[in-house]
Specification:
This protein has 122 residues and is an alpha+beta fold. The chain has a single domain, classed as PH-domain like (Roll). Helix content is 17%, strand content 42%. A 5-stranded antiparallel beta sheet has the order 1-2-3-4-5, with helices on both faces. The protein has a 3-stranded antiparallel beta sheet with strand order 6-7-8, covered by helices on one side. The two termini are 26 Å apart.
Length: 122
């Protein structure tokens, strides 16, 4: 997701910018944003918004339902690392979807949301 690590943003910011992409009853649980791209977890799915091109007029919105996620990895930032890594493997792809997030982001919260939704307990 871009060249820069993503920082955490509020669910309200996501609702304002991407509310038209959500279904009735869908809630944003955790969200991250770079200068151009955005990734967020809802109560139904993982969404990655990739702004493309120089002008940013082309936008790719990828939606991954939790049932399609076969595994994930949340790697916290080390002492010399600037960011943490979130990797999500989807059943239809061999390579993971990767998101670099700010070291200040709540990696434990991301892991809790993903584990709970994938295991059907959260």
């Amino acid at each position: 997701m871009g060249l820069f690590s993503a920082h955490e943003v509020t669910p309200a910011e996501i609702m304002e910018r991407f509310g038209q992409h959500l279904v009735e009853g869908e809630e944003v649980l955790v969200a991250f944003r770079t200068v151009r791209d955005t990734a967020f977890l809802t109560n139904y799915r993982f969404v990655l918004v990739d702004v493309q091109g120089v002008t940013g007029s082309k936008v790719d919105v990828q939606s991954v339902p939790y049932r399609s996620i076969v595994r994930f990895s949340v790697e916290s930032a080390g002492t010399l690392d600037l960011d943490a890594d979130l990797k999500i493997w989807v059943s239809s792809r061999s390579a993971p979807i990767e998101v670099k997030v700010s070291r200040k982001a709540d990696a434990a919260r991301v892991q809790q949301v993903l584990a709970g939704r994938i295991l059907g307990i959260g």
